[in-house]
Amino acid sequence: MSAYAGTGRLVRLALRRDRVQLPVWIAGSAVILAAGAAAVIDEFPDAAGRATALQGAGTSPAVLLMRGTPVGTDLGALVNFRNLAFMLVLAALMSTFAVVRHTRQNEETGRAEMIGAASVGRRAALTAALTVVIGANLVFGVALIGALASAGLPAGGAVTFGVACAVTGMAFAGIAAVGAQLFQSARSANAFAATAVGVAYLVRGIGDALGERAADGVQVTSAWPSWVSPLGWGMLARPYGAERLWVLVLPILLLVACVWGAFALGGRRDLGAGLIPERPGPAAASRMLLSPLGLAWRLNRASTIGWLVGSVAFGLGVGSLGDVVNDALGGNEGVSKLMGQLAGTGSAGLVEAFFAAMMNVFGAVAACFAVQVLLRLRSEEAGGPAEAVLATAVGRARWVAAHLACAVGGAAAMLVLAGAATGLADAAVGGEVGVLTLVGAGLAQLPAATTVAGFVVLVFGGLPRMVVSLAWAGLVVSLACGLLGDVFGLPQAVRDVSPFTHVPAIPAVDATPGPIIGLVVVAAALAAAGMVLFRRRDLAT
Amino acid sequence: MTDAISVEGLVKTFGRTRALNGLDLVVQTGEVHGFLGPNGAGKTTTLRVLLGLLRADSGRAQVLGGDPWQDTTRLHRRLAYVPGDVNLWPNLTGGEAVDLFGDLRGGLDQARRAELLERFRLDPTKRCRTYSKGNRQKVALIAAFASDVELFVLDEPTSGLDPLMEAAFQQTVREVSAAGATVLLSSHIFSEVEALCSKVSIIRDGVTVESGTLAQLRHLTRTSVVVEAAQPITGLDALPGVHDLVADGGRAGFDVDAAALPGVLRHLASFEVQTLTSRPPTLEELFMRHYGDAPESAAEATSAGAAR
């Protein structure tokens, strides 16, 4: 029997398992890119406007770190600048998750054992996984080319864009294949691959932020760190700029090297084993863990830290933009008006309105975080450990309150840090809004985020089986009515539904205690009602 | 003696399904009570009602003298529960999970914890995500048995344990029982219930169909007899209380109702019996009587077919 026997069948099995996931991921990415391209064409019809925007962005290292380097003033070049980094990350994550799903996850669950006992070669599983993922990346690339072409952008650049994303995804498939050999659990292998994506993003971000700005200000040449990042290579091909297709050989070489390495590693280990053993953990619990609150914090700790780091990064980026906003957009009547609408202020200073609008965004992000934390209540209840926990002396209200405390406490920390980071970055580039003002502005969003949290607790108590969809629906409605209500021209009565409508737009306007107290009362009432309902219902496992 | 658990006419419906349909259950303080029934009979539902995790539609349930729905947390300090399907947190270690459950219940005996970790051979430094079903079960068992409580509610606690660990489990149940604790043990494993339980309740479709000591239940059922005699055995099929007869010359095998046993023995005495084995019915056979596909009439038909 050849080492590859059965690969074809395993490919069909993988395609069958991924028949929803991969098409949704690919189509979703293409739709996002098409929308992004349409937005650029709509917002920046003339080259002069594009040049102004790029010149502003090019001066901010934070923007270069997040977005990559601008490659020119063509429409396509601006689409590249605004979307390529994101698309590369989507391709990379699609690939790493899929590879781990069809290799290590099968081994961990024992499925690989049953498959391996059949007439299937030793190398078939990994070969099948890579075949599927490489194919998915080809489709991903074609879908992106289609999205760009359908937006009316030139085909040549579209092909470079699509191929850059496809080969980058393939390179990360190779990295994930190595990770799947090293680690014993799918979770660790996914963490390894996701960390690789994160590090690659950061390294190229540093290279781009340190890049050299051309005299015209609309192009930036990346510094050397971008050349050592697999995510950097896709950008260095410069779709819609001075294209360099040969750079795209690098991800292919990495893929080949990784596949060779993964097979070599795979040949040295037993089925189900990893080359890096699982580290043993503590044999006894620390005092910190031994309470419902300690447990809830432990369960949410890792993701909370991630959200906090993200908030600081986002805050620094926003803060460093204050100056740019004034320079670049000061003359643009439409943008000023949009900013005023987003912030809910008619005509404050442009920078204040910008920050107020961004604080609203921070509030929305904090609400997302709170929803995510509170949905853990449901996953613990449905087929999770909640049954055993609630059979101990922990009361139901206390159990919910512990998770609520993590949600609200984490949201508060996010808003404080985001406000402080914005203020510090603003001060660093010569702004005068003030750190404390922005911390206050961030915290003013907390009652609105808490109201969303209260709504989730209410639904959890009343309609547990629908809580996931209702919680996200509630969040989307609050954001649509609250943050974008003015932009959409919704009537005031509809906008008042959202807690975010009632948040004073600090620092563009002065703080008023009335609405904040009102929101706190509503949030407390919703959460209390949710707890009472939960206390009265059956555990829905 | 007071009752640790007493349940009367318990009814619980989920939508159109009637999970419990007037269930009765009495567990006296200090006894090890077996709670038997096929899948879907309502065992887990009953236990969840007793833990205040579900609210009964009607009927009366009392646990340790309190109302399981009203006095939930106060009662939970005095009992320990091992769910049928133990779910743990993937990123906590087994040792952390044991400590957590013990502490949330109100405290853990550290010496006992160490002893049980040894006895059940559980590595407490491994993350729960790497544990098999049996190992997850062990975490819940150790956390329960290391707690100083009056009542243990165990829902099929040995599913996934190997025979060696099952022996460790039985030893542990005997220890806590000897120390005066009450145990309610829902199970599929008849040998385990036969080995451990002084009383048994059998439920089916949400109703209790039998309840009593093993001896009392055996009284209700038949003895299996195999007999060999020098002369061909005749006339057994005419005796009342004889079932599933397979007769072949001097050899016969049949089941007999306890009440009919004296008459059957008198009848057999006339055939120069050489060997006779009889054994009490296993719980499996008790079970078959209530849930088997072969009720009285079908069993009769089978024996008629075999005799042909």
From TrEMBL, chain A:
<feature type="transmembrane region" description="Helical">
    <location>
        <begin position="400"/>
        <end position="421"/>
    </location>
</feature>
<feature type="transmembrane region" description="Helical">
    <location>
        <begin position="245"/>
        <end position="265"/>
    </location>
</feature>
<feature type="transmembrane region" description="Helical">
    <location>
        <begin position="124"/>
        <end position="149"/>
    </location>
</feature>
<keyword id="KW-1133">Transmembrane helix</keyword>
<feature type="transmembrane region" description="Helical">
    <location>
        <begin position="472"/>
        <end position="494"/>
    </location>
</feature>
<keyword id="KW-0472">Membrane</keyword>
<feature type="transmembrane region" description="Helical">
    <location>
        <begin position="84"/>
        <end position="103"/>
    </location>
</feature>
<protein>
    <submittedName>
        <fullName>Exporter of polyketide antibiotics</fullName>
    </submittedName>
</protein>
<feature type="transmembrane region" description="Helical">
    <location>
        <begin position="155"/>
        <end position="178"/>
    </location>
</feature>
<feature type="transmembrane region" description="Helical">
    <location>
        <begin position="353"/>
        <end position="375"/>
    </location>
</feature>
<feature type="transmembrane region" description="Helical">
    <location>
        <begin position="514"/>
        <end position="534"/>
    </location>
</feature>
<feature type="transmembrane region" description="Helical">
    <location>
        <begin position="22"/>
        <end position="41"/>
    </location>
</feature>
<keyword id="KW-0812">Transmembrane</keyword>
<feature type="transmembrane region" description="Helical">
    <location>
        <begin position="433"/>
        <end position="460"/>
    </location>
</feature>
TrEMBL record, chain B:
<keyword id="KW-0813">Transport</keyword>
<dbReference type="GO" id="GO:0046677">
    <property type="term" value="P:response to antibiotic"/>
</dbReference>
<dbReference type="InterPro" id="IPR003593">
    <property type="entry name" value="AAA+_ATPase"/>
</dbReference>
<dbReference type="InterPro" id="IPR003439">
    <property type="entry name" value="ABC_transporter-like_ATP-bd"/>
</dbReference>
<dbReference type="GO" id="GO:0016887">
    <property type="term" value="F:ATP hydrolysis activity"/>
</dbReference>
<dbReference type="GO" id="GO:0005886">
    <property type="term" value="C:plasma membrane"/>
</dbReference>
<feature type="domain" description="ABC transporter">
    <location>
        <begin position="5"/>
        <end position="230"/>
    </location>
</feature>
<keyword id="KW-0547">Nucleotide-binding</keyword>
<dbReference type="InterPro" id="IPR017871">
    <property type="entry name" value="ABC_transporter-like_CS"/>
</dbReference>
<keyword id="KW-0046">Antibiotic resistance</keyword>
<dbReference type="InterPro" id="IPR050763">
    <property type="entry name" value="ABC_transporter_ATP-binding"/>
</dbReference>
<dbReference type="GO" id="GO:0005524">
    <property type="term" value="F:ATP binding"/>
</dbReference>
<dbReference type="Pfam" id="PF13732">
    <property type="entry name" value="DrrA1-3_C"/>
</dbReference>
<dbReference type="InterPro" id="IPR027417">
    <property type="entry name" value="P-loop_NTPase"/>
</dbReference>
<dbReference type="Pfam" id="PF00005">
    <property type="entry name" value="ABC_tran"/>
</dbReference>
<dbReference type="InterPro" id="IPR025302">
    <property type="entry name" value="DrrA1/2-like_C"/>
</dbReference>
<protein>
    <submittedName>
        <fullName>ABC transporter ATP-binding protein</fullName>
    </submittedName>
</protein>
<comment type="similarity">
    <text>Belongs to the ABC transporter superfamily.</text>
</comment>
<keyword id="KW-0067">ATP-binding</keyword>
